[in-house]
Design goal:
Blueprint: E1 2-7, E2 13-18, E3 21-27, H1 29-32, H2 42-51, E4 61-65, H3 80-91, H4 93-96, H5 99-111, H6 119-125, E5 132-135, H7 137-147, H8 151-154, E6 158-167, E7 170-178, E8 181-189, H9 194-204, H10 213-219, H11 225-235, E9 239-241, E10 248-250, H12 257-266, H13 272-297
Parallel strand pairs: 1-4, 4-5
Antiparallel strand pairs: 1-2, 2-3, 6-7, 7-8, 9-10
Helix pairs in contact: 9-12, 9-13, 10-13, 11-13
Length: 298
Amino acid sequence: MKILGINDGYQATAALLEDGRVTRMASEERFTRRKNDSRFPARALRWLLDDADLRPDDVAALAFATRSATIVPDRPFGTRRHQLFALLARYAPGLAGSDRLIRFGVERLARTRERRLDHAALRDLGFAGRPRTFYDHHRCHAAAAYYASGFAERHARTLVITYDGSGDGLCASISVVDSGGWRRLHAINSYHSLGLLYSRVTLLLGMKPLEDEYKVMGMAPYADPKRGAAVRDILRGYVRLTDDGLSTINVSRSWGASMVAKLAHDLRGQRFDWIARGVQVHFEEVMLGLVLGWVRQT
C-alpha cells in the first residue's frame, strides 16, 4: 500500500510510505529555493510521484500532519486569535491558559481544515476526491520519533515525549507505547509553551522566530555563565516547570506580542550573548526536569 504524507504548513514537506516504510521524502524549499517554504508542497509531491514512477491512482490515501493551521514564521503572532490571546493573557490569564478554550478553538479550526486545503494543487496532481485524513500534530511528532527509533521493533514499553512551539493547540504531549498500543498520559496547551518563549527571545534579538533559534543556541556557549544565569533567573518568571515536575506553566501574564514587550523591558541592559545563554540554559533545565519527572512517574 502506498500513502502520501503531507505537511502543508511550516516547512512544507511530503513523504511516500510504501508498505509501512518511508521510501522518499522532500521539502518544498528544495524546489522553490525559499527557506522553510510554508506553501502547499505541490513540487515536492510531483517529484515523489515522478521519482517513484507512480500515477495518482497508485496512491491509496493522503495523510496530513496537523488538524488545524500551523504557525508560519512570516506571521508568528499576527492573526486575530493570537492578538486575542495576548489580551486574555494580561487580563484573564486563567482563561487564556484554559484547556477547554483552546480545545474549542482547535476544533473550530479543524472543521475548516478541508476548506483551507489547496484544492487546485491537489486537482492538478490528480488527487481530487482521494481519501484523506488529518492527524493530530503531536501524534505525528511522537510517531516520527518512535517508529524511527528502533524501539518499535523491540516491542518494549516506551515513554514518548514531544515538545515544540505549538501545534493543534498543544506544545507538548507525553505518551506511553506498549502492547496495548498508544496511550496519551498528558498534554500541555500552547499558552504554556517554553518553545514559544524561546521564539519570542529570538525575535527580541533581531532574528526570525521559528527559524533562527539555532543561532541563539549557537551563541549561548560563548557568554559569561554568571551573566547568563542572571538572565535565566528572569526567564523563570515567564515559563517554568510546575512543582510536580510534570508540566510547564506560563506565569508571565503575557503571550505573543505582549510577551516580546515584557521581555524588552525585563531584559533591558542585558547583552545579546547573555540573553542567548540565559534562554538556552533555562530551556535545558526545564526540559531535563520534565523528562526526569515523567521517567519517575511512569
